[in-house]
Design brief:
There is one protein chain. By secondary structure, this protein is α/β, with parallel strands linked by helices. It has 2 domains: 3-75, Tetrahydrodipicolinate-N-succinyltransferase, Chain A, domain 1 (Orthogonal Bundle); 109-335, UDP N-Acetylglucosamine Acyltransferase, domain 1, CATH 2.160.10.10. It contains 7 helices and 29 strands. It has helices spanning 3-17, 25-39, 60-72, 254-257, 303-307, 323-328, 331-335, and strands at 46-48, 56-58, 75-78, 91-94, 97-100, 104-107, 122-123, 129-130, 135-136, 141-142, 147-148, 153-154, 159-160, 165-166, 171-172, 177-178, 183-184, 197-198, 203-204, 209-210, 215-216, 221-222, 227-228, 234-236, 241-243, 248-250, 286-287, 291-299, 311-320. The strands form 6 sheets. Strands 7-10-13-16-19-22-28-29-24-25-26 form an 11-stranded mixed beta sheet, with no helix packed on it. The chain has a 6-stranded parallel beta sheet with strand order 8-11-14-17-20-23, with no helix packed on it. A hairpin with a 2-residue loop joins strand 4 (91-94) and strand 5 (97-100).
């Protein structure tokens, strides 16, 4: 970390833990510097860390800075930029310019983000909002209507489709497709908690939901309607494993059940719950790289639920990416 960012961190930490009846330039100046660093991607709520069991580390001070912005902000009316309107459309006039008759009110510290022209970002008209204090990488495509919240990090070449949400502090990797209706939950508090992370080249299918700090590995595919939460176990039919937020419960080794895995699968083995690691250590739900996850169910095995023949929702890993999977998602290149 540079000296400038170290000084900014110290200032944000001090202001976050301080108390004041009124907020002046001593608050707004460092916050504006902090938000500029967020907008430019120089700081982020979580970042890759090869030394971490999850591959990521949380920058709690960045989350504190985002929360600070809500505390010191005052609610103001946010006007809509002048636009050309069809004849007969309801509008009002300000200095001769037509304005749409919508009213938005929010904290003045988080207005709409100004999109830099040199990033080649597409924000297609039709009701999308991108809040200030988030990073949008080069070549990102935003299809209407979609929403990106403060603190999010959307890396180069990602596609955020219609009716999709990227929550506060969520981390979206390069060339990720967040499909129509998908919800990427935000994890702003507690400040030490890992946010939702979708790693490079992953595909989040339509109407999926990823919440509570789940990590979706590089190149993974979530089929339409898949829901990942901290309390939902994921069953891996390929490796006979069960992935949970706290640990991975591994089935017997290959030697015990017979060598059945294909060559090369070990390279995609999950990074948690393996030999030499403490499976009891708190970790988020982690979907292995390349996994193809579909919605499924498992039978209730005891009590009244069993008597009634009920089942519970559970995501299932049915395969790992192969050439056939890659062909199915190759449309992404054309969309971009």
């Amino acid at each position: 970390m540079s000296a400038m960012l170290a000084n900014l961190q110290a200032a944000i930490e001090e202001l976050f833990h301080g108390q004041a009846e009124h907020y002046g330039d001593e608050y707004f100046q460092p916050f504006d510097e902090f938000k500029a660093a967020l907008n430019e991607g120089r700081i982020r709520a979580a970042e890759p860390d090869p030394n971490s069991p999850t591959g990521w580390k949380v920058n709690a001070w960045v989350k504190k800075g985002i929360l600070l912005g809500f505390r010191i902000g005052r609610i103001v009316e946010m006007t809509v930029a002048p636009v050309s309107l069809p004849a007969g459309t309801s509008s009002r006039r300000e200095n001769g310019a037509a304005r749409i008759e919508f009213q938005f009110r929010d904290k003045h510290t988080y207005p709409l983000k100004k999109i830099p022209p040199d990033q080649n970002i597409r924000v297609v008209p039709g009701g999308s909002s991108i809040r200030d204090g988030c990073y949008i990488g080069k070549g990102v495509v935003c299809m209407p209507p979609m929403y990106v919240n403060a603190g999010a990090y959307v890396d180069d070449g990602a596609l955020i489709d219609s009716h999709a949400l990227v929550g506060s502090c969520a981390q979206i990797g390069k060339r990720v497709h967040v499909s129509a209706g998908a919800q990427i939950g935000g994890v702003l508090e507690p400040v030490g908690a890992l946010p939702v992370i979708i790693e490079d080249d992953a595909l989040v299918g339509g109407n999926c939901g990823v919440y509570e700090g789940a990590v979706v590995g590089v190149g993974a595919v979530l089929a339409a309607g898949t829901i990942l939460t901290g309390s939902t176990p994921v069953y891996d039919l390929v490796r006979d494993a069960v992935y949970r937020r706290e640990s991975a419960v591994q089935a017997p080794s290959e030697e015990e059940r017979g060598a059945r895995g294909k060559a090369g699968e070990d390279a995609l083995a999950p990074s948690h719950g393996m030999a030499g690691e403490d499976a009891r250590a708190p970790r988020p739900l982690m979907i292995p790289p390349g996994a193809v996850v579909v919605p499924g169910s498992r039978a209730v095995t005891s009590g009244r639920g069993k008597e009634l023949g009920l089942s519970l929702y559970t995501p299932i890993i049915i395969k790992y990416r192969d050439e056939k999977t890659d062909q199915a998602v190759r449309l992404e290149e054309l969309l971009r």
